[in-house]
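Field reference: sequence -> structure
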Amino acid sequence: MDIADLKEEAARLIFERFDEDTALELGIALVELAWADALPVVINIRTASRTLFHAALPGSAPDNEDWARRKSATALQFHKSSLQVGLELRAKDRSLAYQGLSMADYADHGGSVPVQVAGVGVVAVATVSGLPQLDDHALVVRAMDQILAAQAGQHAESP
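Structure field:
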């Protein structure tokens, strides 16, 4: 996966609406996907000011909580996935420190994906920590795709 792929993915992952109910749906979808493969992950969905969903699945570690917090902060700061931020910085031979950000509070590893609402922009982030970074990122995208498909189906059924 490269920066162009991530930009294309971000352009596709646009919600018509996102509220507490949608955050719960997304969180449950993430838990179900992780449980199906016994993945030891922490799942966090948050806005800039509050947590909307959080789960620590069996086998996850306290360190995963910290990674999720730091990856979420990065995605919220840049309005890009934490994976894309990391790839862009490394392509320029730069780091978060170059941006004036502390590694104690931010992480540029994959796993946090912005929740974008059409006509509004980024309203939250969904984050997974516990797997290799590409797998963390992919799990979030899979769950978002499920919720977006369900929303599209509900929209298509409306008169």
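Note: The chain has one domain: 3-152.
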